[in-house]
Automatic annotation (TrEMBL), chain A:
Pfam families the UniProt entry points to: QcrA_N, Rieske
The protein's name: Cytochrome bc1 complex Rieske iron-sulfur subunit
Rieske domain sequence ranges: 266-337
PROSITE patterns: RIESKE
Subunit structure: The cytochrome bc1 complex is composed of a cytochrome b (QcrB), the Rieske iron-sulfur protein (QcrA) and a diheme cytochrome c (QcrC) subunit.
InterPro entries: QcrA_N, Rieske_2Fe-2S, Rieske_2Fe-2S_sf, Rieske_Fe-S_prot
UniProt keyword annotations, A-Z: 2Fe-2S, Cell membrane, Disulfide bond, Electron transport, Iron, Iron-sulfur, Membrane, Metal-binding, Oxidoreductase, Respiratory chain, Transmembrane, Transmembrane helix, Transport
GO molecular function: 2 iron, 2 sulfur cluster binding; metal ion binding; monooxygenase activity; oxidoreductase activity, acting on paired donors, with incorporation or reduction of molecular oxygen
Region spans: Disordered: 1-41
Annotated membrane topology: Multi-pass membrane protein
Entry function: Iron-sulfur subunit of the cytochrome bc1 complex, an essential component of the respiratory electron transport chain required for ATP synthesis. The bc1 complex catalyzes the oxidation of menaquinol and the reduction of cytochrome c in the respiratory chain. The bc1 complex operates through a Q-cycle mechanism that couples electron transfer to generation of the proton gradient that drives ATP synthesis.
UniProtKB/TrEMBL annotation, chain B:
Protein name: Cytochrome bc1 complex cytochrome b subunit
Subcellular location as annotated: Cell membrane
Organism: Kitasatospora phosalacinea
Region (Disordered): 1-22
Alphabetical list of Pfam families matching this protein: Cytochrom_B_N_2 (PF13631)
EC numbers on record: 7.1.1.8
Alphabetical list of InterPro entries matching this protein: Cyt_b/b6_N (IPR005797), Cytb/b6-like_sf (IPR027387), Di-haem_cyt_TM (IPR016174)
Molecular function terms from GO: metal ion binding; oxidoreductase activity; quinol-cytochrome-c reductase activity
Entry's Gene Ontology cellular component terms: plasma membrane
Reactions catalysed, as given in the entry: a quinol + 2 Fe(III)-[cytochrome c](out) = a quinone + 2 Fe(II)-[cytochrome c](out) + 2 H(+)(out)
Lineage: Bacteria, Bacillati, Actinomycetota, Actinomycetes, Kitasatosporales
Cleavable signal peptide: none
Keyword Metal-binding attached: yes
């Protein structure tokens, strides 16, 4: 990268030596569109014929694939499985239909593109661009026309018409808004209560094991286990089951009473059995991962982690408050029951939620 | 095409002055033209010139996958039942036999197992949706990094941006429809997010779901939104987007013969009809093969939705991953306001950042044109290196997106890489602020480095790999000077000057009184184009000065 120092002077720019590739005075000037370079298919008729055959072959393969598609549809059972390396066992019909359809489509595309690239003219052509903006004559003309139209309408002059029109146009969409009222009920106190609300000290509701559908006694809940429960009387066949279980779902754990750090939580439980809402206080996922050694429960959706030995305090993740706990005891027959609702709304928080 | 035969007869028919059509096809075209005026339309467009570059086909992928989604979606509506009425499954998929589920879920399982080809169409629909959003992203990046959004194309940029956002949401509504355990969890998340909206959250929730979660209205309502409302708006935007592409004519890269006043390429008919038309079939074919070999969203494996059940690894489709990341790394802030009302910032803040992240990139064209003060049309694309601040901003935006995507998949990263989920989440919290800034700095330096290299190449030529020994014993590498077309290409870009200059020449008192906005503008302009923020491109003088010493290097 060395060059003659004697010429490395500001004045040197005028002295242009003619032996460069660039002979122009301005070496950066646009040399214009390069000349067209012919492709093989442009000058060799045999190459062109070959390309033509290739394109046709692709189209023929596409036709065959479509016939294969129809044949597969008619002949392969929907539940037949086949082993295909490296996919493993897959639906034979899905594989056959997908592959034949894919090949039929792909070959049309490949043929068309190959045709365009080898046989259609590849001369690059320039086209002129014109500015998007109109010239001043057009602009002034249009503005004049608009003013004429506006003046003829009297919109600016007849203020009463203008104002009442604006008023009516502003009001008429209200009808549409009013019509939306029946989309749903008002929130009222709906989010504040759950199905456990029906439990009274005089009419306790038993906790029913979600899996076995039977009421539980304290000895059914062993330390280290995680049991899901629902209120007795809430059947899966009930019309509003989904809506009820979205609020009523419980998780029961048992911790040795001396290991329960929160005394209020201990009092709400029964002999170390604690009943927490299963619905995460973050955005409402059901919490389903429980670590028996640490008594931590983790929501698999956004990893909010609650310490169930400490009143379900949030110890990690985006949840904003502890899981509500349901006060439980046993009835005269020794089954676990609730005698009332949660003290606070379950699930995600909301504006009207007391805090 | 000869008009000799046509002119003879037409003279006797005073009704039309047009030459007699040479054949049936021409006659048909004449008939249509007499009613729709197609000749005038075709005159401007049949041989319309399109420039050729691989990156210009990214938008085509979007268009074609959108068409594929509509075709397959119409087919799916013939079999899908958008109903939350309860049914007990008795079909050919035995693991679900006797299980209670909604009609929506049961019909999706039937489409997958009993309708022949139904699974294929369902998978093409879903794969095409993923390809659609991914292609829109990459297409948008292409437009962003090359500055193709500049005047006169800002409005088309916004149309494209709206299409991207609507694509997000329609994808979300679409994968919510089967009412399987995974998608129901997604809807539950949406419900929780709505509840976090201050004042009106519970009302929106009740009105949207027709009562308490989940109710029986949400799937039919999502269905209408998914198949009618959003696609209808998207179709309108898409047509407008394409009309503007035709009207503005395509942008092109700098090169010999290419100017701001022309567009160089090949004509629509036949080359682009064949290439673009063929490309539709290529995209469709590849998506069909993907759907043949790769299962997507196996709803039968998840089971029907139950609000008290969930699976691990619950993930949204990838394009919603950044929203998921926002919600996961946010600390659980919940505050009491206005006497006992709850403001759930832990959910509400992510809910607000979500649109802000998107809007940040959408408004860039307007920020850039304001900072630059450039009112001219631009049809020649920028190489990303020649707009370092823009490129760095785009890279930082992508980096932010990726950080959030990692945050959204923190459980997957934790289980697959055997890392602590807590550590990953804390790292994402830091990364959210730090990574975009670092990316911005690194990318900008990188661009400047590439500008220097271009300058070097222009002034000294390409390294030829030939070592020469000079008479006095010195070894040098011979550099091959560039051809004029390359010199032109590498120096064709403009280098705007910062706005500060006119402000300084104004008298000091007046200039100082400029408001905060004007000052910010000058500051930003300095940051864009000032000293050290772009490498002055080689001048003719520099070139002659160095090349005049020819033969010595």
């Amino acid at each position: 990268m060395s060059h003659d120092m004697s010429e490395n002077l500001p004045e040197a720019h005028g002295a242009s030596h003619g032996t460069d590739v660039v002979s122009h005075d301005d070496p950066f000037a646009d040399p214009g569109l390069p000349a067209h370079e012919p492709r093989r298919t442009d000058i060799d008729e045999r190459a062109a014929k070959r390309a033509e055959r290739q394109v046709s072959l692709l189209f023929v393969v596409s036709m065959l694939a479509t016939i294969g598609f129809i044949a597969s549809y008619a002949s392969i059972d929907a539940d037949k499985l086949v082993y295909i390396f490296p996919l493993g066992k897959v639906s034979a019909l899905n594989f056959a239909l997908g592959m034949t359809l894919g090949v039929a489509l792909f070959c049309i595309g490949a043929g068309a593109v190959h045709w365009a690239r080898t046989l259609m003219s590849d001369h690059e052509l320039p086209a002129e661009r014109h500015p998007i903006e109109a010239d001043d004559d057009v602009r002034n003309d249009v503005i004049e026309q608009f003013k004429t139209g506006a003046a003829e309408s009297g919109f600016g002059r007849r203020k009463m018409i203008r104002n009442t029109l604006i008023g009516s146009m502003a009001l008429v969409p209200l009808s549409g808004v009013v019509l939306l009222r029946d989309l749903g009920p008002l929130p009222e106190q709906k989010l504040a209560h759950t199905g456990w609300d029906k439990a009274k000290p005089s009419q306790p509701i038993r906790l029913v094991n979600m899996n076995t559908d039977t009421a539980m006694k304290p000895e059914d809940i062993i330390q280290g286990s995680l049991t899901f429960a629902k209120p007795e009387g809430l059947e899966e066949s009930a019309e509003d089951f989904q809506q009820q279980i979205a609020k009523d779902a419980l998780m029961l754990i048992r911790i040795a009473p001396e290991n329960i750090k929160d005394s209020e939580s201990r009092d709400k439980g029964f002999e170390g059995i604690l009943a927490y809402s299963k619905i995460c206080t973050h955005v409402g996922c059901p919490i389903s991962l429980y670590e028996q050694q640490t008594h931590h429960a983790l929501c698999p959706c956004h990893q909010s982690t609650f310490d169930l030995a400490d009143g379900a305090r949030v110890i990690f993740g985006p949840a904003g408050h502890p899981l509500p706990q349901l006060k439980i005891t046993t009835d005269e027959e020794g089954f676990l029951v609730a005698t009332g609702d949660f003290d606070e709304p379950v699930g995600p928080s909301y504006w009207e939620r007391p805090r | 095409m000869s008009s000799a035969s046509g002119t003879k007869n037409s003279a006797s028919k005073p009704a039309s002055t047009r030459a007699k059509p040479a054949n049936k096809a021409e006659a048909t075209a004449d008939w249509v033209d007499g009613r729709l005026g197609i000749y005038s339309l075709a005159k401007a467009n049949l041989r319309k010139i399109f420039p050729d570059h691989w990156s210009f086909m990214l938008g085509e992928i979007c268009l074609y996958s959108f068409i594929i989604i509509i075709l397959t979606g119409v087919y799916l509506t013939l079999f899908f039942k958008p109903s939350m009425a309860e049914t007990v499954y008795h079909g050919t998929y035995l693991p679900l036999n006797g299980i209670r589920m909604s009609e929506a879920y049961a019909s999706t399982v039937n489409i997958s197992f009993e309708v022949r080809g139904g699974l294929l169409i369902r998978q093409i629909h879903h794969w095409a949706a993923l390809v659609f959003v991914a292609a829109m992203f990459v297409h948008m990046m292409r437009v962003f990094f090359t500055g193709a959004f500049r005047k006169p194309r800002e409005i088309n940029w916004l149309f494209g941006f709206l299409l991207l956002c609507l694509g997000f949401f329609d994808g979300f509504f679409g994968y919510s429809l089967p009412d399987d355990l995974l998608s129901g969890t997604g809807i539950r998340f949406m419900e929780g997010a709505i509840l976090a909206v201050p004042l009106v959250g519970t009302y929106i929730q009740m009105f949207l779901f027709g009562g308490q979660f989940p109710g029986t209205d949400i799937i039919p309502r999502f269905f209408t939104i998914h198949v009618l409302l959003i696609p209808g708006i998207m179709l309108g935007l898409l047509v407008a987007h394409l009309i503007l592409v035709f009207y503005h004519k395509h942008t092109q890269w700098a090169g010999p013969g290419k100017t701001e006043k022309n567009v160089v390429g090949m004509p629509l008919m036949p080359v682009y009809m064949a290439k673009a038309g063929g490309f539709f079939f290529l995209v469709f074919g590849i998506i069909a093969v993907m759907s043949a070999v790769a299962t997507i969203n196996p709803v039968w494996a998840y089971g029907p939705y139950r609000p008290d059940q969930v699976s691990t690894d619950a993930q949204p489709d990838w394009y919603m991953g950044f929203a998921e990341g926002l919600i996961r790394f946010m600390p659980g802030w919940e505050v009491s306001v206005w006497g006992g009302h709850t403001l759930n910032l832990g959910v509400f803040i992510p809910l607000m950042i979500f649109p802000l992240v998107l809007v940040a990139i959408a408004v860039w064209p307007f920020i850039e044109s304001w900072v630059t003060g450039d009112k001219r049309e631009h049809h020649i694309l920028d190489r990303p290196r020649n707009a370092p601040v823009r490129t760095a901003f785009g890279a930082a935006w992508i980096a932010l997106y990726l950080v959030l995507l990692v945050g959204g998949g923190n459980d997957l990263f934790a289980t697959h890489l055997h890392m602590s989920i807590n550590t990953i989440t804390y790292a994402v919290r830091v990364g959210f602020f730090v990574v975009p800034v670092l990316t911005f700095i690194v990318t900008k330096r990188w661009c400047l480095g590439l500008q220097r290299r271009d300058k070097d190449k222009v002034l000294h030529g390409r390294e030829s790999g030939i070592i020469k020994r000079l008479p006095h014993g010195e070894f040098i590498e011979v550099h091959t000077p560039l051809a004029q077309k390359d010199l032109h290409t590498l120096t064709a870009h403009e280098q705007p000057q910062p706005l500060e200059l006119p402000a300084e020449t104004d008298e000091n008192g007046v200039a100082r009184k400029a408001g905060v906005i004007a000052k910010t503008r000058v500051k930003l302009s300095e940051g864009f184009y000032g000293e050290g923020n772009q490498i002055a491109k080689p001048t003719t003088e520099e070139y002659h000065e160095i090349t005049s010493g020819h033969g010595h290097h």
